[in-house]
Structure formats: structure tokens, C-alpha cells
């Protein structure tokens, strides 16, 4: 049996090397030192081509320009974001290096500094400088939106039953979805062989509350694409689902929590931008009864548009919900951890992974339906309780940030950690 941490193949190679050195000792004479690869071939029994391939330096991983990428799933994404806020909860300032060390230790993160830097930028964080030191903070506009959401959801929880706060979201499960880890023997044997790739995808849309899943609101279908699952939904389909499956099956005057997916945010009247054609800009201004010179240039027209456009965009699903007596509440960007349905999805995906035996999409669909039935009101109540705890942590952490790093937020300098830093 090979020692812990070493494969059976390593033990075999060592045995061959030992026998080779033993033969050299017994045979005596000159030892060939000029061509190392030939000597390795004689010692290990491997072809020189194989030796050269195995000894070829690996491409530097996780650097700018490299094709190497690691996948950060939703669970890890939430965990990393929570780690950042835990630093402030401990009254410590997170830097890229201290955060990387902690997530490598606690979350077994395998990426480097550049991967972490890109992840943080993508999820709304930035580095701000004070006294020559760089600290990790979330962009001020995102913090502001989080504060607005926390105040709004807190007021809702105090003013209406939990059953009237509805959480909805979309997710997917691939045909080859299976546990990421399993028990194996000392030779690395064990577990079910998994097909290469992710396989077909099951797209899922649902909603729920403290009373459990909304009755008749389950929508799932097999994807015809392999790209981002958001491509499978659009504003029209989403609105049809809301109007026929969700609104008729939830309590009156419910508040519906949604994220910022593009099809949740289709504007009922989108204002022109600088890339809009000049004639369309003119038509928009005419419809608003705004006078302008026929000789005005695009930048002049756009300045008028900015003055007269609505301060806040109007969204189609907000107006649709209002028609049925409901209201839409939007999560702050990059905060899926504030949606309890994410925990429900995690439970369902774990069930599917453990019971996926044939890696066929039809079987995945059946397993999903079975997992759906296993989710109880208690599961939903526990998920909501967990999210309320996260909300409380944000309140506490943001209060600490207001006290400790106020100067960082008001004395800003345009500075960010370079993506070209080493991963070492």
C-alpha cells in the first residue's frame, strides 16, 4: 500500500529506480551521465517522449493571458463574499493577500491572486488607498443599494406576515451533475465514472415563501443551448410565467423579491443613450414635448434627454405586479446570499447529485421533481431565518465600516490592485 498522499504509481516508479540503482551497483563500470533522459528511460521503463512530456514545464496558471480558469460556483461565491465582511466584523481590514490566505485555508480555494482579484471586481468590490495601504471595500453605490434594501425588507418583515414576502429565482442542473468528492481506495479507485463535460441542462424557475413553494409555480424545461441559462429566458416569457403561475397563487398584496437579471429589468420606456440614433433622440424629445433646435448635435440632444428623463427607470414587471396588487423588491447587485431560495436550490442540487446514476437529462428532470417534493415549509423557514441572520450581519458590519473606514470612502484615490500580480 502506498503511503498517505502518494499514489500506487509513485511506489512502482520508486521500486523501478531502486532496482536500477541496485543493478548499477552490482554491475559496476562506467555510469552514463551525459544524457539524463536515456538514463531515466532505462531506470523507469518509460519512453523518452513520455518523459519529455511529463517533465515539460507547466504553463503558468491563473495569470493574465493564460487559458487556465477555475470555476467558482454559487456556494463558493457566497462564501468568499461573506469572508470579506467577516474581516470587518472582526474589525480588521482585508487585503488581497490576507483574504487569499484565509479562503485557501478555510474554503480550499485553488485560484491565485489574479483569479481572486477578477472575482472581487466582478462582484462589486474595489481597492481603495489610505496612507499608502490598499483595503478592500465594496463600491459605494452597491453599499448604498444594500442599505436601501435592508431598510425596505426590515420594514416589510415588521409590517406584514412572512407568507406575503415571496422569493423567486432561476437556476439550472446539468445532466452530469454529481458529487464533487467521493471516497476512493489507496489506488484512487472508487466512485461512479462521470461522462466528460456537463451534458444537457435543465432550466428551473420557481418561487416560495415561509409557507413553502408557491403552488403551481414550478417551471422547468430542457435547455436547447449550452451557453448561460439566462439566454433561455426573456422578458416576455418571464412576464407570462409571473402573470399565469405566480400572481394568481400568492396572497394579496405580496412583496416579491427578485434579483437584477436582465429579464427582471426590462424597462417599460427606455430612455435614449448616446449610441441611440439622432432621429430617435428627436422623436423621444418630441413625445415629451421638449423643444430643441433642429440644428442641435447629438451631444446637445442627449443633454436635454438627461434633464427630462425619469429619475428612476420604470420596469415592466413592477407595473405588471402593481396591476395585480403586488410590489416588486429588488435585491442589491451581487447579493444572492440575501435570497433564501439559493439555499433551497443547494438542497435540491445536492439531492440530485447524490442520486444521479445514469447522467440522462430526463432522469435529472425526474430527480428534480422528487427533490422538490422533499422540500418542506420547515426548510423554507430555516432558509429565511438564515438570511435574516445574514441581514443582521450586514447591519452590524456596515456600522463598523462607517466608523472605521469612513476616511477611506471620502478620501478616495483612483487605485486598484493590479491584475498582473504574481500568484505566488
Give an overview of the whole structure.
With 424 residues, this protein is an alpha/beta fold. Among the domains are: 48 residues, no CATH class; 161 residues, Ribonuclease H-like superfamily/Ribonuclease H (Nucleotidyltransferase, domain 5, 2-Layer Sandwich), CATH 3.30.420.10; 33 residues. It is built from 15 helices and eight strands. The strands form two sheets. Strands 3, 4, 5, 6, 7 and 8 form a six-stranded mixed beta sheet that branches. It has a two-stranded antiparallel ribbon with strand order 1-2. Strand 4 and strand 5 form a beta hairpin. Helix 9 packs parallel to helix 10 and helix 12 packs across helix 13. The C terminus is likely disordered.
Could you give the topology of this structure?
Elements: H1 8-27, H2 36-44, H3 48-55, H4 74-89, H5 96-107, H6 113-122, E1 125-130, E2 133-138, H7 140-159, E3 165-174, E4 201-209, E5 212-213, E6 219-222, H8 235-246, E7 255-258, H9 278-287, H10 298-308, H11 316-323, E8 327-330, H12 341-355, H13 361-374, H14 377-404, H15 406-410
Parallel strand pairs: 3-7, 7-8
Antiparallel strand pairs: 1-2, 3-4, 4-5, 4-6
